[in-house]
Amino acid sequence: MSPLADKTYRRMFAAQVVSLAGTGLSSIALALLAYDMQGGDAGFILGTVFAIKMVAYIGIAPIVGAFSDRFSRKMFLVVLDLIRACVVISIPFVSEVWQIYVLIFVLNACSAGFTPTYQATIVDLLPDEAQYTRALSLSRLAYDLENLLSPLLAAAALLVLGYNALFVANAVTFIVSALLVLSVQLPSLQSQEGRNENGWKNVMFGIHTYLATPRLRGLLALSLALAVSGAMVIVNTVVYVRDYLGGTQSETAWAFAAYGAGSMTIALVLPRLLDRFADRPFMLTGGGVLVAGLLFGALQPNLVLLLVLWAILGMGSSLIQTPAGRLLRKSAGEADRPALYAAHFALSHCCWLIAYPLAGWIGGTFSLSVAFVVLAIIALAATMMALLFTPAVDTLDLSHTHCAQCHEHRHVHDAHHQHSHEGWEGPEPHRHEHRHTSLQHTHTFVIDRHHPGWP
């Protein structure tokens, strides 16, 4: 049942783990570089870097998802890894702040292409749903371990090396990731039929599919709840521990570790439960856990209770994040999955782009207790929206009616294409004008060219 039994997935997962470890090292090195360049104003540089990162994610991911079928999937991932390696190895040589901003945009533009393409590839590698669910759990564990272990590895390296060595290490990890991807045979991606005649329509297809699918509208609402709780942890942990509790740097690290430990616990336990039960109850429970945790934070807990609270928030986040890939998988055909995963990548990061400054501004302008309450209200509203959007019984096979129409696109003769030919059309898949008669039938329903709206 373990996806690691599959050789191809095992190498792809190793590529993910290696590149995540390197990214964690360079994040710490970037903070140290910013401090060397601007001293006390390093926070301004890092804040701008984060904003650039979000803009790159939101702007580039849908474009890559729209045109990913034009390239070999394996070579696309390899080239993005090599570009990322070149970018991070260049960072130590910068002399101006604007150069950092340019390199960070290029780096995260590549990540915005790599991550959704990688996620969509894993779906095709593991057609068995139980295996794929466990792969989602492993992915969640990889992110949590990166958050826990990268600071320890960086601290050990900095005892004997300068922080520029961390950038070099990150470049090496991207090269190793590229070699691992290059060593496997990935399934070819079907052409995204009918969506190559208009570039803007290509870009918007994934967004349209996402927002037109009820279960994914619910996922987006829960992504907002996840973002506001996660932003509270990431932005305000150091303020709460150091200023309010008078704690140490070590205690701040323990607080972050508690959040990661809570997330890892659910990631380990949840796959077995998802084998037997639907995704919806767990994800909505995750939203409720986040609301309750944020409200409890307004009571100003001491350090021990804060560690417990952060672990609970980590659990709630994992209850939402771990099953998310299953919803994406069932909401698109194979050819359209890269566009849909890219849309989720972009839209979920829109939530984070809102949540990060909101958590920092409210906490800094008013108080952390006010920030806890306001973010809890937002998380509650988002969870209620998810409850309304997500079908209580999420049936995959839906009965629907097609109106008669005449159009032209690449196609094969499947259930939606039964028509005569004159002989010049050529082998399938081929492109010619054809007519669809009015039809009512039942099958696994996803939004695509022939199903533009939910029945």
List the defining traits of the structure above.
455 residues; mainly alpha; Growth Hormone, Chain: A; 2 domains; two-stranded antiparallel sheet; 71% helix
Q: What secondary-structure arrangement, pairings included, does this model have?
A:
Blueprint: H1 7-38, H2 42-67, H3 73-90, H4 97-125, H5 129-158, H6 164-182, H7 199-212, H8 214-244, H9 249-274, H10 279-297, H11 303-329, H12 337-365, H13 368-389, E1 397-402, E2 405-411, E3 430-436, E4 439-444
Antiparallel strand pairs: 1-4, 2-3
Concise structural overview:
The chain is mostly helical.
Name of the CATH homologous superfamily of the largest domain = MFS general substrate transporter like domains
Average pLDDT rating: 85
Structural class: mainly alpha
Shape: globular
Distance between the termini: 35 Å
Helix content: over 70%
Q: Rg to the nearest angstrom?
A: 23 Å
Tell me what the CATH architecture of the largest domain is: Up-down Bundle
Strand order of the largest sheet: 1-4
DSSP helix count? 13
Which stretches are poorly predicted, pLDDT < 50 over at least 5 residues?
Answer: none
* Biggest sheet character: 2 strands, antiparallel
How many extended strands? 4
Main CATH class of the largest domain: Mainly Alpha
